[in-house]
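job 3f2a | input accepted
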Amino acid sequence: MKTEKIISKQQTKTNTNISNNIFYLINSFFHSKYISLKKPKDLWGGIVLLCTFLLMIDAAYLAYILRNDFSKFNIERMNSTLGLTFIVIAGILSLFKVSFFIYTLYRYIKYKPVASVKDKELPTCTVIVPAYNEGKQVWDTLMSLVDSDYPKEKLQLIAIDDGSADDTWKWMQNAKKSLGNRLSIYQQPENQGKRHALYRGFNLGKGDIFITVDSDSIVKSDTLRNLVSPFISNKQCGAVAGNIRVLNTKKGLLPKMLNVSFALSFDFVRSAESSLNSVLCTPGALAAYKSDAVFACLPEWINQTFMGHPSDIGEDRALTNMILKQGYHVLFQRNAYAYTNVPEKYRGLYKMFIRWSRSNVRENIEMSKYVFKNFKKDTKIGTRLLFISQSLEIIMSYPFLLFMIFFVLTHPLLFISSTIVSILILSTFPAIFYAKHYNLSESFWAYTYSILYTFSLFWITPYAIATANKRGWLTRDLPEIK
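job 3f2a | predicted structure (482 res):
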């Protein structure tokens, strides 16, 4: 089918040749199908990966040489009140994070996706596709949805142009001509933001389940039926998060890195959250909501404000939060895939992360207002642990930023070597996880991504906290290659 062809172009064959020899691994980067020396972009990718490993090897060797300096540094910190206090706090937090990781791993093992139900059991669904300056991509998105293995009579498809300045509306009209009554298209009088486009779709929708799909995403033929099946098997289910992978992996190094990162944040983290019935965020790229749960909080959601200003970001996290607050279960379906475009340049990447971080700050504040109350009938321990873990990351961002600055200014070599060695250790799990579930050669991007994030994106959370009241999508007007 056309949808499968679109998706297959973004995937690579799994490389099963595993070797413990580091030189063999580096050599395999340059000779695998994934990184071919014949293509300049792939050659550049191979060089980046090679430099990543050389950097980590050098850092490990430097840390070994400076081991006595590390001991001296630790002794100095323990002999000062401030230093000892920081070490104790860092030790407690590290113990919590390790314990929480083990707990998350246990919950991940317990997780199992819900199998697709039969056609007669499938609920009626309204799929809403908000679009802004997507051009032809919106056509591909709509065609992939129409190709879904879902009963036509149970599927309502709505596309809403949010006042685009390009030819998005033309492509929607072309899709309408091709699909006829299977698609309804609407145009906002002006650009009002994604939340308002979805709001219009919710009010137009007639299905028992609302499905939201970003206009730069492609779904597999079985995605929709897999996504909504938990609503049938679990009557307390209020929302379901889809499994998001990267569509534009061939267009740059950042998409390759994010593809590995997404595998951990969705396949691993959300699987664990789902086993606790408490997925904290259903992604805008692919999510499903019980219509009753949506309408129960729709007025609050569309009129949501933060520090006196209308909220125009984080609409997915906000809706998830409001549904959790009602006592519903929020689940994850690993077998419901959507492939979406991600930023290909650093500028787009950090702006996307700022938007996400601001939303996390805002919604954690909102979550704190109900999570320790009796907001649902069944156990609330898992939800509270997830909240505490995420809140600690936000709260401790400034103390650790200050310590990092102090460490860099006083012991730059110790900082660089210890940080990169830590990356080598901590990034091994996501690399192994991705290699096991997807592709060996691609898994090494986990190390490169961690280095990139640690040294060039560390400021995101502190900045997002300081500017949490600011509005703006940030990336909506950036030019994209279609």
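job 3f2a | Residues 2-84+407-466 form one domain.
job 3f2a | closed
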